[in-house]
């Protein structure tokens, strides 16, 4: 008994030396490593040392397959309706004790709880997976390459992967599309070729046998020890919701002046175009107002005022002179300043009744 335990101690020492010879992997000794343990028995006969008896045992370290897929940023990706090249970011890591390929698939959730609050209620389009080819952690259109698998990812290797999609138009703030990126352990085929899906070996052989040792990302279709790992991210819409209210008032007429004026020929009419951006969304930019002055009215030159204030939905006669009037089409136009969520903008102009 005592001798046995001493031999085991010696074997442990040899194993430690072997581990120290190569960089330690998170997953332990590299698959395919042959571990040899030699025993030596020395003895004497009649007080004379004899040639020691030796024997050795060799076995091959098997392949422990583990991988993770993690969403990067821990928050939904904010997108605008109609946006193209909308990017969600994931980190795919090989925790196996061997180089493997990792097959990649991006799927869309249909309804149900989104990854970061709220409910999935739409799908993005043109979903494509890219790898961070230049390794800067950011999606670079035209540089980072579209992929369907990560080729020959070394043990402890990790890659940033982007799911890039288009967002349909016509969506509202807080609409959410959840995308799920799934990695699948594969091997064989060599560099430049996608390996076959790995499965756990039924029995131990003298060669390198595979044992799936992955966990799960808490999503359906991803169990422990299935060679798959999934993570989800959300595309969350943030948009502006503009409404416009147009009104007019009589400023003066040729008989009453500004006191109780009536809409008689020669009267000056002031039009108010009030643009409101609903609360809870985002800033609207590039806001252009166009308004065709009706026949029977004549535009009052220089009367356009932009970015004034409102009382209710009625324009105060303030703002900054600007805009343009195109006589040929009798069109008033003006570009308003950006309107933040929950704010308003105005365009005011005057015309006389013919
Ligand atoms: Ca969806
Ligand atoms: Ca990049
Ligand atoms: Ca390969
Ligand atoms: Ca799994």
Compact description:
The chain is mostly beta strands. Helices cover 6% and strands 44% of the residues. A hairpin with a 2-residue loop joins strand 2 and strand 3.
Plain-language structure description:
The chain has one helix spanning 2-21, and strands spanning 34-41, 44-45, 48-49, 53-60, 63-65, 67-71, 77-79, 86-94, 100-108, 125-131, 145-146, 149-153, 158-166, 176-187, 196-197, 210-212, 228-237, 242-252, 268-277, 287-292, 297-299, 305-306, 310-311, 314-315, 320-321, 324-326, 331-336, 344-353. It has 354 residues and is mostly beta strands. The chain folds into three domains: 2-61, no CATH class; 64-237, Sandwich (Immunoglobulin-like); 242-353, Immunoglobulin-like, CATH 2.60.40.740. A hairpin with a 2-residue loop joins β2 (44-45) and β3 (48-49). It is rod-shaped. The model is unreliable at 1-20 (pLDDT under 50).
Uncertain segments are 1-20
CATH fourth-tier homologous superfamily of the largest domain: Immunoglobulins
Percent of residues in beta strands?
35-45%
Report the order of strands and helices: HEEEEEEEEEEEEEEEEEEEEEEEEEEEE
Q: Give the count of helical stretches.
A: 1
Q: According to CATH, what is the class of the largest domain?
A: Mainly Beta
CATH architecture of the largest domain: Sandwich
């Amino acid at each position: 008994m005592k001798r046995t335990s001493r031999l085991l101690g010696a074997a442990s020492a040899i194993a430690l030396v072997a581990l120290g010879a190569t960089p330690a992997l998170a997953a332990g000794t590299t698959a395919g490593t042959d571990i040899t343990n030699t025993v030596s028995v020395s003895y004497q006969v009649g007080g004379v040392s004899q040639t020691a008896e030796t024997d050795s045992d060799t076995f091959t370290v098997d392949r422990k397959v583990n991988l993770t897929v993690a969403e990067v940023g821990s928050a939904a990706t904010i997108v605008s309706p109609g946006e193209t090249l909308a990017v969600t970011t994931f980190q795919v890591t090989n925790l196996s004790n061997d180089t493997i390929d990792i097959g990649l698939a991006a799927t869309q959730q249909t309804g149900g709880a989104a990854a970061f609050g709220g409910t999935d209620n739409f799908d993005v389009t043109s979903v494509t997976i890219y790898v961070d080819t230049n390794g800067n952690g950011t999606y670079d259109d035209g540089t980072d390459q579209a992929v369907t698998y990560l080729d020959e990812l070394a043990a402890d290797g990790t890659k940033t992967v982007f799911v890039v999609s288009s967002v349909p138009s016509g969506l509202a703030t807080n609409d959410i599309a959840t995308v799920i990126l799934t990695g699948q352990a594969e091997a064989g085929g060599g560099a430049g070729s996608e390996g076959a899906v790995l499965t756990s070996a039924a029995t131990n052989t003298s060669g390198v046998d595979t044992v799936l040792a992955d966990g799960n990302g808490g999503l359906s279709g991803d169990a422990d020890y299935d060679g798959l790992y999934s993570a989800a991210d959300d595309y969350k819409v943030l948009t502006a919701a503009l409404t416009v209210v147009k009104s007019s008032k009589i400023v003066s007429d040729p008989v009453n002046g500004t006191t109780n004026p009536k809409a008689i020929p020669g009267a000056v009419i002031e039009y108010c175009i009030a643009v409101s951006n609903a609360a809870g969304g985002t800033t609207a930019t590039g806001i252009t107002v166009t308004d065709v002055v009706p026949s029977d009215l004549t535009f009052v030159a220089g009367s356009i005022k932009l970015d004034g204030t409102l009382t209710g939905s009625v324009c105060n006669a303030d703002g900054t002179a600007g805009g343009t009037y195109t006589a040929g089409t009798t069109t008033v136009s003006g570009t308003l300043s950006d309107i933040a969520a929950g704010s308003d903008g105005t365009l005011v102009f005057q015309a006389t009744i013919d």
